[in-house]
Specification:
Elements: H1 5-14, E1 25-28, H2 31-40, E2 57-59, H3 63-69, H4 88-94, E3 98-100, E4 111-115, E5 121-127, E6 132-138, E7 142-147, E8 155-157, H5 180-183, H6 193-206, H7 217-225, H8 248-262
Antiparallel strand pairs: 1-2, 3-8, 4-5, 4-8, 5-6, 6-7
Helix pairs in contact: 1-3
Length: about 270
């Protein structure tokens, strides 16, 4: 079944009002899914309302896209496809048609991204072609239809796994103000502390996907071979979290392991 921009918009529209579960892509919420995901991403499964959402279709932000790619309909059971299993950052990297928001053409079905740079993308939404964005925003919000503001979305891309079937360059009755990305002086919406923690958790998790540069490969392998870094993947597969932050507590453990390796303990 061919996947298209218009199909992606229709799928996303059908999910509005449904819950956000981190690490999901259109599965049906259940106790077993909750248990598996809580084990895999414990910091994202601390709310008390998960049981009340059993039986509903659930996604995270990039899962809203993968749910469409891997399902035959807006309610069909998704079939996992490892070749298309990308984070929001990976989805942008895989795209061949993309750019900064100043070049955004306003085509329905294009992906919109948040992040301080293309290497630090933390969130993705789907442009509806009508001045609105569909996004699985976080557990406190679920999947929403929100007003498009260029200042909120620094980057855009054509989904690398969809064909643009719209022939669209923006809605004829709408003006896409791309220049406002740099000049928008509107007051930003205030967020609560709980919402801030949700955003930080999402940013934190995006940096735990084992992505890393070739320049560090030799050093990383040495650290693994010598037991300086130990993986702690929930499914038994090591996750070294190479691009994640390092706390002082973790730094102390790394220095301790290195001292043991060099025989310097107690000196």
């Amino acid at each position: 079944m061919a996947k298209t921009n218009s199909g992606l918009v229709a799928y996303a529209r059908a999910q509005v009002g449904l819950p956000y579960w981190y690490g999901t892509y259109g599965q049906t919420a259940s106790e077993s899914l909750y248990t598996a995901k809580k084990k895999q991403y414990p910091s994202y499964y601390t709310a008390s309302d998960f049981a009340s959402q059993y039986g509903k279709r659930v996604h995270d932000c990039v899962g809203l896209i993968k749910g469409y790619l891997w399902s035959d309909s807006a309610t069909g059971t998704p079939t996992y496809n490892s070749a298309q299993d990308k984070s929001a950052r990976g989805m942008y990297a895989a795209a061949t048609t993309k750019g900064k928001i100043a070049t955004f053409p306003g085509t329905a079905g294009l992906l919109l991204f948040k992040g301080s740079s293309t290497g630090a993308i933390t969130h993705v939404g789907i442009y509806g072609g009508d001045g609105y964005v569909y996004e699985a925003k976080g557990h406190a919000y679920g999947t929403l239809r929100t007003v498009y503001k260029a200042s909120d979305w620094p980057y855009w891309a054509q989904c690398p796994y969809c064909t643009d079937d719209t022939g669209d360059t923006g809605d004829a009755g709408e003006t896409i103000d791309n220049d406002s990305a740099a000049t928008d002086t509107q007051e930003e919406e205030m967020i609560t502390y709980e919402q801030w923690k949700e955003y930080m958790n999402q940013y934190h998790a995006e940096r735990q996907d084992n992505d890393s540069g070739d320049w560090s490969e030799e050093a990383r392998q040495w650290c693994i071979d010598n037991g300086i870094f130990l993986g702690d993947g929930a499914d038994g597969t090591p996750n070294y979290m190479w691009e994640d932050f390092l706390s002082r507590e973790q730094a102390a453990v790394l220095l301790y392991r290195l001292a043991q390796k060099l025989g310097a303990q107690g000196n």
